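Thread: fructose -6-phosphate complex, take 2
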Amino acid sequence: MKISIVKDKNQGGQLAYNFFKEELDRNSQAVFGLATGSTPLTTYEVLVRSDLDFSNSISINLDEYVGLAADHPQSYKHYMWKNLFQYKPFQHSYLPDGEAADEKSEISRYDSILEKNPIDLQLLGIGRNGHIGFNEPGTSFNLKTHKVELTESTIAANARFFDEVRDVPRYAYSMGIGSILKSKRIILEAFGASKAQAVKDMIEGPVSQQCPASALQTHSDVTVILDEAAAQKLN
Ligand code: F6R
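Output below.
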């Protein structure tokens, strides 16, 4: 794992932008794995302001809530449109369909998208409990796309985006850790003290299902972009 410590999340976004640019310079049809949440927002801001052209590229998102309509303000589809796609359209952007009637066929649809479009660059955030995507502690590292029951801590963390905790969806579709590890290159961003323990466990802890992000230790091309607060517990 390469570790880059930056001054703040804006500098982190700038650094992540360099990875996107490098990938696009190499191949205008590159496939990007994308994340939602607060962490990648500065990266998307830099991408939006840039002159990068994604119109030949493909994006594949990590996850989506089950049961939220695509136009719900908290759906990840809406988040991606609001923060990136309305300004930087991709040739094709894939997200799990949270409203799919048949869950099994939705899961196999997403797996076949991933098989046909191997990810060149995957952008990740990390949860306070070490989750990546919605792969919570205890999840097998071999899983492909799957339906996840969210933990109470993730529901509580996401509650800030909803009027009431009971409005937070209980399930999500997520790429599995097995799918994430197939990406050729991975960047994971973490900003703020609330991520410091998870960052330490990911980088210095044992490779263990208790910290899903520790699986990244087994990948050969991972760069972790941290601000000082997120890096404060590292030895
Ligand atoms: C989002 C995702 C999650 C988040 C993580 C951190 O697509 O996959 O794993 O990256 O929950 O969320 P934030 O960035 O809001 O702290």
